[in-house]
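Milestone 3.1: sequence recovery, worked example.
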């Protein structure tokens, strides 16, 4: 009887439990990038890194720069407006590169979809206020920058729309964090896409109604 109780097949109460794996799997690339960005939030290079991530996100990077803006602002709420400024200008600077990429591929795009369709899209971009709504609603921003270059949106209107649209995003986040602090972080993470789409649709809808009326 005693031998049966102490056999290897029956673990004793003191036997340690196997540790639970918490490391992010290698194939979860997007989450790993997210965590990598967060690792810069409390470093001396945080501000320069925020500019760099804002710049490359407007061209190809998949993680939005507010991922870094939020913890930086929560740690130093008195610098909320400075971080919003850095993110805005970094994003618009990167947007210019995205615009140039789209402009380079204007010829192939014309052959692919036809000049009539591109001209039809271009007519919708003749209103700068409509462009602002597009900047807000189209997420990620890189889709807007490249598309604007493809259809040859007027460069000055593209710049104004990008400054206002991206400014609304980053200064809006800064305002919420400055006013309410940490609880806003969960709200932004959960509803960010829905909020940007809703605001953009409202702006575009208002412009369309104004044109019709």
């Amino acid at each position: 009887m005693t031998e049966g109780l102490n056999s290897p097949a029956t673990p004793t109460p003191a036997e340690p439990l196997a540790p639970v794996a918490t490391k992010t799997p290698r194939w979860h690339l997007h989450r790993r990038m997210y965590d990598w960005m967060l690792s810069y939030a409390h470093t001396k290079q945080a501000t320069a890194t925020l500019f760099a991530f804002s710049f490359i996100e407007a061209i190809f990077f998949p993680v939005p720069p507010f991922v870094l803006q939020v913890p930086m602002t929560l740690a130093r709420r008195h610098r909320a407006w400075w971080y919003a400024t850095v993110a805005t200008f970094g994003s618009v600077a990167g947007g210019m590169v995205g615009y140039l990429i789209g402009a380079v591929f204007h010829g192939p795009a014309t052959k692919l979809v036809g000049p009539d369709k591109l001209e039809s899209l271009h007519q919708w971009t003749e209103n700068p206020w409509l462009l602002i709504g597009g900047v807000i609603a189209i997420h990620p921003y890189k889709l807007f920058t490249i598309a604007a270059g493809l259809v040859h949106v007027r460069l000055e209107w593209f710049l104004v729309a990008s400054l206002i649209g991206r400014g609304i995003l980053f200064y809006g986040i800064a305002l919420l964090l400055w006013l309410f602090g940490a609880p806003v972080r969960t709200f932004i993470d959960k509803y960010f896409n829905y909020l940007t789409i809703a605001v953009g649709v409202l702006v575009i809808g208002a412009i369309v109604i104004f044109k019709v009326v």
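The longest helix spans residues 183-212. The CA atoms of residues 30 and 63 lie 7 Å apart.
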